Amino acid sequence: MDLGKEFLSCTTEKFHDVKKLAEKAMEQLTLEELNQLPSSESNSIAVIVRHLSGNMIARWTDFLHSDGEKAERNRDLEFEGSYPSKEELLSAWDKGWDALFAALSSLGPDDLMKTVTIRNEPHSVLKAIQRQLSHYSYHIGQIVYIGKQIRDTSWKNLSVPRGKSEQYTEQVKNSHANR
Is the pTM for the entire model greater than 0.85? Predict the structure, then answer.
């Protein structure tokens, strides 16, 4: 087994998992709810989407050859405004993920120890990927949490429902036994 190939495969799968988690949360919400501020010091889900999209486009465009903080990115503006429609929000969301997945799919095991920069700071490709996976997971956790707070009792659970751990474990065990 090639460790580099396995790392890229597992990491790509994990990026898809966290993307899907956020999408399942956002599916449950209206445009107004996506723009709702949980508190004066918090960001709306729409602002988090704007930030993630801007970050992904900057970090993953020309990934191996230019700094991950592009001159044309205005990070501060990512924390202002909203989207006029849910479709535009999701389009921005997809644009960021498309940049990420295009860059990841272009990488091979031999690229993992190459050096890239983010804000002039050198990173191995492996470290840069881990940095972004951690960053995106952090914000996707916020998206899920905010959505759950907004929907309250009408929230559709995205993981193991409370009080159903044993049932879920048994279900997973049975699905593996039937393979």
Answer: yes
